Records
---
Amino acid sequence: MGALVGTSVVVGSGKAGAVPDLSDIGAWLTSSRTGEAAHANGLTGDVDGKVKLPGMGDHPVSLSQDGKAVLVLDEKTGKLVRIDPSQLTAEQSSRYGSGLQLVSGGSYAYLVDPVEAQVQRIDPVRTTPLGAPMDLGAGPLGRAVADPKGTLWVPVPGEGTVVPFPRGKRGDAIKVGAKGGKASTLVMTLADGRPVVTDTEGGTVAVLKRTGVGLRFQLPSAISKAPAGSVLVPSSAAGDVVPVLARESGRMTLVDTRTGSLLNASLGAGSHAYGTPQALGSKVYVPDHSDGTLKVYDTEAAAITEPVKVTGKRGKLSLFVRDGLLWVNDEDNETAVVINSSGHVNRVHKYDTDVPSGRKPREDAPSGDDGKRDPAPGQDAPDAAPQGPSNPGRDETPSGPDAPARKPDGGGEPKEPERKEPERPRKPEQPDRGGEKPEARPPGTPQAQSGAGVIRISFAPSPGVKPTGYRLKGAPPGAKMKPEKVGPDGPFTFEVKGGSCARQYSFSVEAGFAGGQTAESGRTVPTRPCVAPAAPQKVEYAFPQGGRGINLTWQAPANADGGTRYTVTGGKGTQTTNATKARLTGLANNRTYNLTVAAANAAGSGGSTAVAVNLSNPKKIEITDNADDGEEVGIRTKPSTKEGTRLGYVPAGATPTLTFVCQVRGTPEVHDTYGWKSDVWDRIEWEGRTGYVSDLWVATSKHREGDFSPEVWQCD
């Protein structure tokens, strides 16, 4: 493992003949075979610029483009370079250790050593270290993220915490799970720029704040009980929805981190090698590393739709969302794709060389660089330029005999060949069943979405023969189901109200056909009829007589249910109640208590409402019984005429109204006119300072008996 210490040198200079004009809506994609990074236009998929990455061929690399600069890290050698988009060159370079994480956001950039549990802030322009590495204790660390403000969020699974680094400085660790977790236990995600952590062992998803945990959502058992290390969560999400996938079972939950609603669906198990999912619009894209395709789940149709072919070859596909577009790249292959929110796919040919580049004129070009595209990975460059290239065009132009041909020298406009109408596939002839009833086929496996006191079930209709209708199975006893039956033409949705928040329910849909045949779908992922409650509202407080306690009341969140419980922290500890009130006792007067009230149910915990309570009861009271006898009433620094000093006095005969804070015992005094005796003193606010006056000259109800007054609390 290399150290987090770097040395910097200039590694590239000079300009290419073409002036780079990179699209504002675009992204950088790496290619390990050519040792390059290609910039592609997000609207067309065209490559509009390339940068040679010196010494980075055939190594896995990390590219960070969410901060002030575009940085590339060779994960094997630890070499870090900065891309200059204006010159299409790699301008700066520093050498660090291997196996590091590169993370950037805003104007901040970091290298994280997961094994040594260290964080090194770096200069995103010069690529050099800024300050000494910061130690987080025992590793390994989970995958870190940096939000748009540059705050780094580092999961420390061994401690069950996430450590923020605001402005590059270490903050207080936030407790998010149990101690002793592995590196994959805590997974960080930026959901619309907000830090979210998934505890794969605890089965929760929590929204983080600098001060601690906000909303926390409980994942269904199909996810939380998945084998260790098999739960996949993306490091960023374009919106509030974070997809969580159990790789082996194909069960998936979409967590809305704003509302707490969970949408549960099933992709199906089998021989797929699922990768980390990404959500964009109404679709969820799941890479299948076994064949280089994307599995597409449409939440509106509640069904799996036509897959997207990326490379068509075994390989690891990486997905990320940028500028509202989904980018999919396999750095070991020529082709990548970019998909917009409506599902339209543009292909990106990273090996295209007829594009601006910072490569010097005499610099060696990658194999097959003849001013057009390189040959496919694993093939040798041809001796002569082919008459009809086999590479598809940038707008998914088919290859083969129907592809438009280019001139052998790559110049001029390509000739458009005579287009032939593609032969449509014929439907296989159906055998004569001799009057046999048509096959009854089940509807698609439903998806279930949790709501406040409700579960909504959606499904894809039965293919082939149209049924007479659909019925829902699995509703809890006593639940209200709407509708009772779905007709053959939909809408293909049921709504179930009822059931216990503490339980999970699984549903199936049965299709009925003419002649009494039925076909039943698979069952949904178990789902709760509730969502995590929001924060309690309108927290108010009052004091019992004499203080030393706080009576809290609040309003339940709008989405609270009968199982919602409230936790009050602060005061002398923590208490939990099902009521919307709590009483805190045994407190000290004249102190400020920071209290929080949080709501939770079986679906998770909502945000908390904080309130600062000053446990004091100051009173405006007159000085009284102050005879005009030439003797003023003294204001002392202590409740005594024998200790402390005199702050001031109230002139004889004067009866001003003063602010009285509390009462204490002090030296006994005697009223110089009436002969009353008392050792009670009143703490008052006097000219911006705190002073004491004997209660003998105060209009409280108990001073003549020498006891404390119920009007003014005792000092603690």
---
Amino acid sequence: MNYLRFVITSAVLITASSLLMTSCKSKSRRGDVSAKTGVRYNDPYNGGLQINRKIKESPGPGLVGIEGGTFVMGGSLNEDLAFSHDNLRRRVTVASFYIDETEVSNADWLEYLHWIAQNYPQDGKLYYDALPDSLVWRNPLSYNEPYVNFYLRHPSFQDYPVVGVSWEQANAYCQWRTDRVNEHILRQRGILTDYKTLNEQQQQAGQAFNTEIYLNGQLQGEGIDGKNMPKDNKIGAQKDARRTVRMEDGILKQPYRLPTEAEWEYAALGLIGNTYDGNIETSKAYPWNGLGVRDGSRKNQGRMMANFKITGGNNMGVAGDLNDGGDITVPVTSYKPNDFGLYNMAGNVNEWVSDVYRQLSFEDFEDFNPFRGHVFMDNQYENAETRTLAKDKYGRPIKVPAKAPRKQTWEELQAAKSGDPNSTTYDYDVRGFKDEEQQALYGKTTLVNDKSRVFKGGSWNDRAYWLNPATRRYMQQNESNAMTGFRCAMTMVGNVFGPGK
């Protein structure tokens, strides 16, 4: 009897093991074979379609993953002191994304300036246009001249947030950062020539890497290609043929950019620390819990949670026991981070976001990833037949107005090739969608136009009211001051926080 029970048990275990192994093999094969045609991927003999199943989405350098969700935008603002009614409460959903852990610092900006000087030593205009306006510190009735001369470059200020940068300069930095991060990835992997070899070749200045141009196959050849380029599996390719990296390989990072206003406000509130079983248990007025600006913990009780102007004539507290300790800005990792792990989402410096400013109504926003500011552009082709992109003198693709709201037919596309690339009947500039710019009134009864950009967060020179993430102000995109900096964001491809994660 015992022997029979042993035989039956063994048979069941063997059958279960076989089924498990078959299931594992099936799942393994499923990754290498098309589920719809049965054709194998990554096979050089059947066409060579390469599908990478081993890529794991990860943030670029300096970024923190923000799990998206729904929240009431404008909901943390309990009073509207200016009676501007420009952040009406509305429930929206923000997709998961990445954002910088800290504000961009002076050291970060000096790296940017150094790169320009190294690569374009003869281009004085490019370097000058990238310089922050250090004169924002100058004040007729305040002795701020030392900051004019020392704030950006002195090593004692290297970890302080960069200021005096306009919205336009911040966007240029994001584009530069995208290209440098992707170039570094390719050189570290040996897909492009490594830095040492590049230096020995004494590469000519002005030959800068650009992500879009590289992905279009226009950056390759002797002196550029590394030893570890991916194999080229297309039919007819030579045995040891190599190719450039494609977007489908999952190696390169998405572009850095400024966060949208909705993303910034969502990340600043950090409500993830106040949720339980899908419900928000307590709301917030600031990036920390509580209705005040002082720390409620026993260890740091009474200490200020951010760098702001406490009252008129009081920037930092009394000597011997300073409150926030910041006479002007402070290092970008000062104070406690919020529940997303982000530093200084209130105070220190205001931060640019990507949105064009408008006073809001209930009709002029979307409830998923709300954003105002689109100017839809396409790449210009130098040769449409070979799909060669036109480049400017810095090696960046030239952008032209989008021609249509949707994919054109082949016939429409061919007809457009013979026309002026800058000519279009499509309304590609939708910054004023449902709320057009009043050009005749600008400078007379309004200071809002399509170049008015939102900044948020409050600064070292602002009162506590502006620390609320729902407050919003604006400035022209080419303007700057000593109270405004920025941090970068990045779109999350896929969703690392999705089902089953």
---
Amino acid sequence: MDFTSIVFIQIAIFSCLAIVFPTSRSSSSIKISAAIVLILLSTSFYFRPDLMAKVGLGAWAIAILIPLLLMRQLESLVINSQYMAASRFAKWLRWLVPTDGMWNYHHLLKGIALAQTGQMEAAGEIFARSRASERTEIGRSATALLYRSTNRWQEYIEWVQQRLTPAQLQLDRSTNLAYYLRAFAETGDLRRCIAEVAKLDRDRQLNTQYLNLLKMYILAYCGRVDAAILACQSLLSMYPAEVHQFWIGTAELAAGKKDAARQELRQLKQTTTDSCIQQDIAWRLSQPLPNLDKLTPYDWETVAGMEATVIQDAGYSSVTPNDVPTPVTNFIIAINVLIFCAELFWQSKIGDKDFTFIPWGGLSAPLVVGGQWWRIITANFLHMGILHLGMNMLALLYLGKFVEYRLGTWKYLFAYLVAGLGSMAVITYIDLKWMTTPHITVGASGAIMGMLGAMGAIHLRGWRQAKVAAAGRQFQAVLFSVGFQLVFDLTNGHTSIVGHFSGLIIGFLIGLMLLGLPTKELPRLPSS
């Protein structure tokens, strides 16, 4: 079995195991599909190993990969308020993902799209039909949207309390629970909203994205303008700018900047084409915000804790803000891609079977000690194929952007080069010391694993020294990634475990060293 097949089989197995794991939040249909794929992989491995790659990978691509990618695209359309496009997409997608309420989901999205364009009567009819089956999540979501689209918050609270069980409310935590808690604040009971969100935060019972959204709501209602801006710009950057503007305007109103906030909200109402935003603005301008005088010192302490968490999460989130420049990462990726294109051109000229990495600077221990030391550098920019390049560059895009954002341009470049050169030097030493048959090593994996190590150092420092809980969670994720890489390397004879883990250790140590020097500060609230 070739390298590409082995890699994809490993990815299929690990991804399916992660989906069927008891703590996974994946939908039931995806879990069933993952279990079936695991059975097919096991069966083909036992009876027909030669067909394992075709049968298992085909099933994985059709049942897992493609549905997940399409569902992610649907989620992106919904987050960006492109509801009519999402409705058309969901109507087609339901044939591929027919369970978990997907069959009628497009009706719900169409209703939101109609409400978005001001066709409230037509939207209400769709919501009324969809809510007929309150036993399903789609039906309950339709009811939530029916009340939310008309700002009937008190009626919605009464409906939830009368018709939904705590189990149903928890099941719909990304829709009904989020709207339910917002409804308390919109009707003046901000204390209840703060207490419930704080409990969800302590128990980690809600998806991080929706939890951050609820925290931003509370910060806005409490007039924490700078914290609301920071949350919108970093943790909630996936939402449309109009949503950001509405909640920042809400925060300014609560902070007492009434004239400026009202002017901004009126201007937004005139420029937006989203009827739901227009209705929200009309509601905000006509209804009083929660009375902050009713909050107790304990409530304010809780809000301050949420504010601190937003600042910490913004600093240690593994997702780098889109507007942050990362020129070194982009340059390194471009160099690797250009060199790979040159490799392909040369292969087409001489034929694949005659191609060797030696003339291009591939690492060979005997040649390095013979005086060609520069191979320790050049080998970092060569790749064996499109899969090898693609996996490395995707990893670099994720890890490199974060490390460059946190360490700064020149420290990041230093860490990347030292990890890459150091891992190649370790490979050279091991090859000469213990290997009887010299081999050629190429790839940026050592340097990229060094960036994983540097990321671990950043999170470990934030967790142990700054006492940031978010950094502790991210450090655990780094450890999980290291464990995954170890299993991947041990079950794949085509990768260099020495190069990977020497780069990881070097990057971790370099990261700790650079963090001891003046470095980029965590995001903080601007001075008001």
---
Amino acid sequence: MRLKSLIGIILWGSMLVACGPDNRVTLAEKLMAEKETDSAIAVMNKIKEPLHDLSKRDYALYALLMSEAVHRKQQLNAATDTLLLPAIKYFSQSGDSLYAERALYCKAHLDRRLNRMSDAMQSFLKALLFLQNSGNHEQLYRVNTWLGVVCLNQEEYSGKVRYSKEALKAALDLGNMFYKNMALCDISTGYLFLNQLDSALYYAQAAYEAALADSVPRQLPFIYTNLGSIYSQQGEPAKALDYINKSIALRPAKDTVRILSLYGAKLELFGKLGQYDSAYHYFQKVISSPNPSSVADAYNNMAKIYHKMGRASDAYPMLQRFIELSDTIRKYRHTEEAIALQELYKHEQLSVENLYWRTRAAERQRNVYWMTTISLLLVWVASAVYFIYRRNRNHLMAQQHQLVKKEKELAQQREITSENLRRMVELEQKEAKLKETFFRRLSQKVVQEIERGGNVILSDEDWDDIVQNADIIFNNFTKRLQQTYPSLNKDDLRYCCMVKMQLSQSGMAQVMHLERDSVKKRLKRIRMEKMGADSGVTLEELLYNF
């Protein structure tokens, strides 16, 4: 009896030790607090299978620390989301507001990295909820400041002002003069974009006075630039030029990109002052900038100056160069957006795979737990039956009741597993819809013109882009169509792309410059004559999963 009891105690003790805190995670947290990011990553990389080897809390903390580490190294990507989600879920439910806020703060920066500004706003706002009444003024300043950044990006300028004022309160509570000055500059910027120039000037001057009083000289270049922008918008180019010169004088010579940008501001101001030789002098400087936006603005401003001087023949090549640079910048931004969309698509795939493997891992963990528990119970029951069956029959029946209860719990767990599988199917359906949305967004030129009711004129190059996007998103969509239905010609494939884009027949008629009935007949001919489909099947249904 004593030997069997001792074996049971040893087994239970082993389980408790396995579920205890992992020293590697504790060490990694300490290293992260000491800003030893690379050392913390090295420690965490020694945990070969963290999802299986760590307790739920340790895994959540491991996921948070690893995400914070890649954020510090500016390496956030869509895969980081698979780490953050379990950390956010665990710490939000456990009520650990400190870790929950850190996880949400990290996710907000990930959302910004993936151009998901609405999601970033929601993550920052949730982080702010966990910070309420925490007394953590440092983090309150950071979260409110970043909320202002996101609002500015979303052109929600009143939100920029509101959150920057909250950041100012946190900076004052913290007693950090640099943060205070930054917040004042942010408030001024928000009012500038709202075109409330008196308020913008008030806070810019307050920032200037605070920089002098609090000995924060490194803020002065930014303050001078801000004051220059305000006076320029107020129609006082002479004052604006004075502040721009002060900003340039305080900047280190190595800060060439920023200085050249300020030269662009001087070019515009000299043009307003009618000092055209000086304007041309700074034009020659700005066009050497590595920043294409600064160069484009320089050509645009010089074209305006030549037009103002009545030199139309000189203004025309400047304007033409501005248009070329603008097209280049627009194509670059379009490429960035396409890359971001592809990364989002990969992220959705990772989320589906992650849910599947988490479900499998949770199921295996539950099976091991229940098998161990049932095995231990069986050993205990066998010992009890052997020694006290005749004297304690009622006690045995109580144990059997416990087994029945465990079986009910197992049944509930199976129901949970079935629910998770159902969610996986829904995510797969969401993935198919996401592909349609990506294709529609990549072809936004057509969609926007149709929604505005404009005259849609597509060149062969535009059609080539649409066909190329269809092939990228839907795995060689047009090529597979051509192989399956060889009689389809180029125009037929274009109609199939518009169907995949979810354009209405009216929209197709607007693109092809035909009557709606002609489009309807053309779609019917493609479906029945060239694809051999039954009359009861629509072309949309044929192409939905193609």
